[in-house]
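Q: How would the structure tokens look for this protein?
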Amino acid sequence: MTKIEQNTKQWYLVDAQEAVLGRLASKIASILKGKHKPTYQPHQDNGDYIVVINAKNINVTGNKLNDKIYYKHTGYIGNMKKTPLSVAIEKDPSFVIKNAVKGMLPKNPLGRDMIKKLKIYNDDKHSHHAQKPIKLEVK
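A: Here is the predicted structure in token form.
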């Protein structure tokens, strides 16, 4: 078994230009968990950092733009807010990707640490050039 101090963290760059949301999110979640490494252990955070660019150009298949709805409750009676996917992408595309990836991670403190390693940018400019991220292809 490896220790957390022995794991080296790598940086990956993912271009979301014309990528399908679900396929992109599952690939990102797998890398954040560290499943691509031979030292994967489900109780440790062995995953790497991911920088996603061009989040505003994400695609979805089928009729999900109109059918998929995000729900938010304000806490007051009768105040459930419903937002379709098409409006959410126009308003904040990074929320859509982050929410999809977050749903694929563990629902515990380990998952909350994993999601912090995800950096999402709506255009192709990012501030992580010093980390020399490796370009990762997602089909």
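The two ends are 33 Å apart (CA to CA).

The chain is about 30% helix and 20% strand.

Upvote if useful.
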